[in-house]
Amino acid sequence: MGKGGEGSGDGAKVEEEENMAAWLVSVNTLKIQPFRLPSLGPYDVRVRMKAVGICGSDVHYLKTLRCAHFVVKEPMVIGHECAGIIEEVGSEVKSLVVGDRVALEPGISCWRCKYCKGGRYNLCPDMKFFATPPVHGSLANQVIHPADLCFKLPENVSLEEGAMCEPLSVGIHACRRANVGSETNVLIMGAGPIGLVTMLAARAFGAPRIIIVDVDGYRLSVAKSLGADDVVKVSTNNQDIDEDVVQIQKSMGSDIDVSFDCAGFSKTMSTALNATHAGGKVCLVGMGHNEMTVPLTPAAAREVDVVGIFRYKDTWPLCIEFLRSGKIDVKPLITHRFGFSQEEVVEAFEVSARGGDAIKVMFNL
Amino acid sequence: MGKGGEVSEDGAKVEEENMAAWLVAVNTLKIQPFRLPPLGPHDVRVRMKAVGICGSDVHHLKTMRCAHFVVKEPMVIGHECAGVIEEVGSEVKSLVVGDRVALEPGISCGHCKYCKGGRYNLCRSMRFFGSPPVNGSLANQVVHPANLCFRLPENVSLEEGAMCEPLSVGIHACRRANVGPETNVLIVGAGPIGLVTMLAARAFGASRIIMVDVDSYRLSMAKSLGADDFVKVSMNNQDVVDEEVIQIQQAMGSDIDVSFDCAGFNKTVSTALNATRAGGIVCLIGMGRNEMTVHLTLAAAREVDVIGIFRYKDTWPLCLEFLRTGKIDVKPLITHRFGFSQEEVVEAFQVSARGGDAIKVMFNL
Lengths: 365, 365
Description:
Structural class of chain A: alpha/beta
Radius of gyration of chain A: 21 Å
Number of strands of chain A: 21
Low-confidence stretches of chain A: 1-14
Largest interface: A-B, 39 and 37 residues
Mean pLDDT of chain A: 94
Largest sheet of chain A: 7 strands, mixed
Oligomer: homodimer
């Protein structure tokens, strides 16, 4: 294959556009370089990327070249929260046509293992996921992707909202695993991007009361403006856990049924375990240190279950429906926008890494 | 009421004084009179015949507490029991004098949300034999609600009836962890609780069961009771030994679906977390220190859920059925027997506390 672009059927004019992408070439080094697309399979589509968001994991790869046990060993295209427009469809693709606006689910599972067959394809050991090494990501002009992982956007849902389906899916999957419903009082530890999408998802699932906890006053005010029933500001000091729990329970006013730890610290997990009532659930969403020191025994002895989540499964249709109906509004989470140039890519990641008032940084291509 | 016992209708005879084993101070058990409450319309009076000693009874003896339960005044000890009905209340229709029954220790309130929601084991007003301040059942007689006394089939002995209580812990754990014919089970800790959990798992159809312990004698007992294989591990309580996890997984031969921690140490919990497959379950039965330092994050990020258990609910009928059909044989677990006298009570608790080859110490009254 040449430099990208395909020869047309009659062999005459060849589209010469070179497909470019943002490559992670070494620690803290992103470079926009050519990205050769694989050939279009019969069940694939070629998508022109229009909106790509930056995730905390992308930033982590940039800074450390690793995330948990995934290690970047050679240059890799970054990015996985994306949406775009179909430009070409494979010969067997019937569900999509050129021109369709689609949101992409990043992970291609094998469909042959027991996890895939058992309905838990997110746990597939052979998962190929955008920007999880060694699989290239989607911060590029174009990508090739299976058609069944591209979901058509309704008229009233923008491409940026389409890209937001990915982080939103984390919140949706967590709410499903924790069985959030119309009788579930929800506590969320951490008001960063993940805590916020979890809150939006919990509300959409009918949670009657949602309390959010963080150390950062600004983030708590954002959470309040996005619909939290109440917020509690806490310290990073472990000694304060008991008092925090009292404050949080008062703020909820009744038993806390489900807690989401969207921060991943021993303190936040300990607080969640102690604050949740007997028979409830604590869902660990945030990825922290592997070893956590937590009051596990008293929680287990009250049948407070700890539920983990890994990415998501089968969430795009529901995300899109929530966005279509307005049950969820993700637009306020997009705080910064950048174009797709070398300087802007570098700056965008710096802004995202800084945190603070940067919730979701979005590329418009 | 007088000293226990009733005056007969002709006013002449006074019956026996009811005696019980009282925990009067740390390490001090005394057989003393135990005045029975009056027999309510839905109660029965039971002559105790078989009472087992539980680790929690030993713990109460040694420390006057168990978790947040504190012994503040003398309390009758014991809760694993079975006996013969001697008197039934006016409204009791299900039982008659002479019936041999096993007793479920805990009286729940029946009107809180836990009771109404089918999780009566979490009732905050639970009154449980031998959990302060409620007197236990190591006594000549007790008065108990008829609905918590379960008639023993002909071929099930009173000692086996008393074993329903520890067995219920294993049954409840297997239910919460969804053990079935496709479940490969790992059990860490081959003490009495690990053993009843193994027997329960086998009765639930578990396909393969591996036991892990530091003690060879207990492992050989587990093997003789039906474990498919066992792995002896080191006493190092600090952290997981990766080689041991590999050994355990090799002994299983295929993915470990459910792990039961029946020991309650950081190391045993982390071992279970690391050894269990993605999407599996770790069930904490062993009661360890409040704060534990465990490898929680990576397990949560593989959707390994951590579930706890608190006692049991609605398990006696199933226990008795398993005992009746022989699907479970608890008799080998009863290793030591004592009569009900001051000297024997003291000795029995010493034997039980010693551990080692003492699995279940049983009183015959």
